[in-house]
Amino acid sequence: MIISINARMIEGPWGGANQVAKTLYKHFSQKGHTVITSLKSKKIDLILMIHPNRHLRVCSYGIEDIQSYIALHPNTLLVHRVNTCDEPRGTNFENKMLLDANRLADYTVFVSEYLKGLFAKKGFDVNRPNSVILTGAEEKVFNPGGRADWRQGEKLRIVTHHWSSNFMKGYDIYERLDLLLSSEPYRSLFEFTIIGNVPTGMNFKNTRIVKPLAGLELAQAIKQNHIYLSAARNEPAGNHYIEGMRCGLPAVFLDSGSLPEYCAPYGIEFNLINFEEKLLEMKDAYPLLKEKVLECPYTGSKMSGQYDSIVNALFEQRQQNPLAEPGMLSALKQRLITDTGTRIMRGVELFKKAYGHLK
After folding, report:
1. E strands in 29-141
2. Sign of the CA dihedral 20, 16, 244, 260?
3. Cα–Cα distances in Å, from 208 out to 183, 188, 278, 299?
4. DSSP annotation of 88
5. CA–CA distance, 17 with 59 (Å, rounded to integer)
6. Residue 197 in contact with residue 164, Cβ under 8 Å?
7. Closest to 26 measured CA to CA, from 112, 162, 140
8. Contact 194, 202 (CB under 8 A)
9. What would the pLDDT profile of 28-61 be if each residue is shown by its tens digit?
10. Per-residue pLDDT tens over the stretch 248-285
11. CA pair distance 158, 154, nearest whole angstrom
12. Rounded to two decimals, what is the model's pTM?
């Protein structure tokens, strides 16, 4: 098959969608498929859309481009991976954008039951072809090999990591932990490290801040610790806690979004009231949970295999029931409409850039 993924495959520290796109790109290539990141082919069998907004740096093209391509090539399948929503950022446009773009999809993959339920309430028809595929981390990178040992009497080292500096990633709890480390018994029991970007103006006094890391360097930094902490709000499926657990760190996690769905078997849940109590509970439970977390199954190969099954099934169905291709006149008409629409959109974008400061 020729598979197109609308991602730029950015190297270095970046968001979770980029990491997943790279994992799937590698997997499909190893399976013998031709994988591209553009629409510059006359015969694309399947498009995997990681986000419909072409203005995002991670996206190589958007839903408008996909719609135009499928109008000319109706047998091209579209799989939409829904991995975000408005709720984690407090915005009010993402959900509508995703639902509008999803109308074109032949199949929808949600990254958690939490996210599927949220979009069902927003209007997604759960009778359309869809499934939940939990996100996985590259196991050659994120694995428990070489994780730090903890000895009785030693401080338990807590870590979290985020590319985004959005306050909703849990920085109120991270600041709360920083303050706790000024007093006993927490000062004698724990250390705390944040890897990544922090909100401007936050002043941590008892926390080690490390610049954003990626790949093996990130995994090695995580493994120097014992416990993974996430207080992210309404997270659809955060790569950060998946990577942390895959590195062999049991999780202390907030009861929010998909965190319980992913982390419950491998850690201790807290809420905004009992964080201090649950932190101390983790200290006592750590010897058992550090063994339990070794069973954490969220690997890139498992995730990719599930996508593989869907892609193959969709392709086989389309081969057995192909759609009629547009005639020459219809194709020419669509091309003219597409080219005109593209020029108009580009003109609007240039106008906004040139005169936006006048608003």
Report:
1. 34-36, 46-49, 77-82, 107-110, 130-132
2. negative
3. 17, 16, 22, 29
4. T
5. 10
6. yes
7. 140
8. no
9. 999 999 999 999 988 999 999 999 998 888 889 9
10. 999 999 999 999 999 999 999 999 999 999 999 999 99
11. 12
12. 0.88
